[in-house]
Amino acid sequence: MTEQEQYFFEILRNAVPWYMTQHHRKLLEHMFNTRYYVTLKGRNGLFEETRLWDGIYYRRDHSDLPLNLGESYETTDLDVNVLEVWAGFLKRACGDILPIDSEKNMFYFTMQNLGLIDYDDDHYDEEKVDRIIEKWLDRKYGKDGVGSPFPLYTTYTDDINMRRLDLWKQADLWWMENDPVDEFVEYLQRFDYAQEIFANVFNQEAQG
User: Fold this and answer.
1) Which residue ranges make up each domain of the chain?
2) Of 2, 43, 111, 134, whose CB count within 10 A is highest?
3) Entry pTM
């Protein structure tokens, strides 16, 4: 197994629900092979990009990441991929602003919000997946966040423009809309239980 493959499995093992590792492998590989870039500039863009790089927990070697994000935030060709950035962001967000102890649950919900859950290995469409990810990274989703990981429905008002908010504020607004919901919390608990049951199966595959 190559170093890149080991890194890929490490992200999957730590940040992705077991169900998705078994049924969305093509999607996850696509995210791993897609470069992440930031299109929101100015103060919010700087804040977002700095916190995102700080959130990459799974990378062993950070030598190719900028040491001073304040001076280099205009650079958009950093060698980081969508999967590692999003996994790192959710790990940080779950500890900072979202009262959920598992980034795996949040990974599933954000992929569902993006519309990527429909593209499992049996229904994978590379062009459609690519368009969804580009629309997200280019911030061409709705002002209400529909088409992004954090859409607003019942709490959206005309004075909100999710395209101009950094991801941390988007996540905060999304959680305010979805909490407290008993069914939501109950679903997370069931999801954690299912992951625990199948954890050993996945670990055996990753080590094989």
Assistant:
1) 3-207
2) 111
3) 0.75
